User: Which sequence fits this backbone?
């Protein structure tokens, strides 16, 4: 993945953005986030998934710098503005093999743009949760859903665990209030911005887990793959799509397919990434 450049030379537009930094939760902040995404990303299509539109950017660093000016503080990289090889492969796979997700409850972990989640919904999944730590990813997932005519659920019935994964932590599945958030009438597309990793290992209630390109960080990758294996052991069908990241699992999976995915020059050091689709074992 690309590295961030050094000093920033902010110009007038970006200063204006910084002045408009959202200070509070709710609709106003949401509208500002929507405007920010629309200013910095344009509707486009990922190479492997021409069926779906996404708000996409061309370069990481200028957008990352703009994000930090807008938020007036350190921010994670804007992963949400790109269709990484992982989600392209997952999306292609479920669109080509819809039986895998039809009528199923699906979690897209580390969803970024939400491409895999949207593909699962388009392929006939009954309930889909797009989950990412970054609230801006949640914003762009909503915008991307709308671009493709897909609705996002806002019903309080799900009580999505925004921001407080601690309240969900339950290795035994006994926290029934929260463990049930993907069951019952929770059909449709849900956007959850929280760290679910490690929570609800026995009671998440998903049939299929999609995880695209989540093995790039030395500390996070083992944490994520351990949790994915717990979900697999609890009965979920777990697919991990990995474009050769350093911390990807080396065993405990079945290799389902390999794709050559074109990449943006700004994102990777190669014009394409060989991306493996792994069925992770528990
Ligand atoms: C390289 S991006 C991949 C995004 C998307 N899956 C794709 O392939 O296009 C990795 C994403 O994982 C998210 N992420 C990292 N750790 C996470 C965690 N513990 N829970 C949820 N999302 C996480 C990041 O915020 C980022 O959006």
Assistant:
């Amino acid at each position: 993945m690309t590295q961030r450049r050094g000093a920033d030379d902010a110009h007038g537009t970006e200063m204006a953005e910084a002045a408009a930094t959202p200070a509070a939760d709710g609709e106003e902040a949401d509208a500002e986030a929507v405007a920010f995404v629309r200013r910095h990303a344009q509707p486009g299509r990922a190479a492997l998934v021409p069926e779906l539109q996404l708000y996409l950017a061309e370069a990481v660093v200028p957008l990352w710098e703009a994000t930090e000016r807008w938020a007036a503080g350190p921010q994670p990289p804007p992963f949400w503005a790109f269709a990484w090889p992982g989600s392209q492969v997952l999306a292609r796979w479920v669109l080509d093999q819809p039986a895998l997700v039809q009528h199923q409850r699906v979690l897209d972990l580390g969803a970024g743009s939400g491409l895999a989640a949207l593909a699962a919904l388009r392929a006939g999944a009954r309930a889909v949760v797009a989950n990412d730590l970054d609230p801006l990813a949640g914003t762009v997932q909503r915008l991307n859903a709308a671009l493709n005519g897909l609705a996002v659920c806002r019903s309080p019935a799900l009580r999505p665990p925004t921001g407080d994964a601690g309240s969900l932590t339950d290795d035994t599945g006994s926290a029934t209030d929260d463990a049930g958030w993907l069951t019952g009438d929770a059909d449709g597309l849900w956007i959850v911005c929280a760290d679910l990793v490690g929570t609800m290992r026995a009671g998440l209630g998903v049939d299929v887990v999609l995880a695209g390109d989540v093995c790039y960080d030395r500390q996070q990758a083992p944490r994520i793959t351990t949790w994915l294996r717990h979900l697999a052991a609890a009965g979920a069908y777990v697919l991990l799509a990995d474009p050769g990241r350093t911390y990807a699992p080396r065993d405990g999976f079945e290799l389902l397919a390999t794709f050559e995915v074109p990449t943006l020059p700004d994102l990777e050091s190669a014009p394409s990434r060989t991306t493996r689709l792994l069925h992770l074992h528990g």
Q: What stands out?
A: DSSP finds eight helices and nine strands in the chain.
